[in-house]
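User: I'm preparing a small set of examples for a lab meeting where we compare how different chains pack in three dimensions. I only have the primary sequence for this one, and I'd like the structure in token form so I can line it up with the others. Please keep the answer compact; I'll paste it straight into my notes.
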Amino acid sequence: YRQSNAHRVRLKPDNFFAPMTAQLIRRATEDDAALLAELGARTFADSFSNQNTPDDMAAYLAQSFGPELQRAELADPQHTFLILEDDGVAIGYAHLRAGEPPACVSGPKPVELSRLYVSSAFQGSGVGARLMEACLTEARQAGYQTMWLGVWKQNVRAQAFYQRWNFSVVGEHIFQLGADQQMDWLMERLL
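Assistant: Understood. Below is the structure token output for the 191-residue chain.
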């Protein structure tokens, strides 16, 4: 997935035209394990640290983000990671995971959008939309017909984003963050 905006320009306040940065979405490889661990932990912490205790955050980050864990997921054909880079710097990524969905996910041939994380400096800039489009394309090309995800009930901004992409609530489940049991909405859409 290549998307270059190098041919576009934007108007600066002093009427100076400058080229926009080049962005690229690529499939992650096992060599990206450390990058995904760092980017995942950083973006998760940036988004949710102020709403959770330091102990719960530390426990979740240690359990969920580490080079060895990401390396194992990257080696597993059930997992697909897409990285969005801005001038060669990773600013977001998405994680698709095949496997058995929860009972409330009823669409045919489902795949989970396990993570769609964007660096805080790029939130609201269209990076999430570019990653979502790449995920939908990737899932369709792999033969999936349904995409599902879990989103924290308190994360209203993410819920609105997914609703704009035609996801709808089909159930709920518990998301364990350290010692805190949080409730997620489960959402799905047809591809």
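A couple of notes for your slides: Residues 1-19 have pLDDT under 50 and may be disordered. The CA atoms of residues 105 and 170 lie 7 Å apart.

User: Perfect, thanks.
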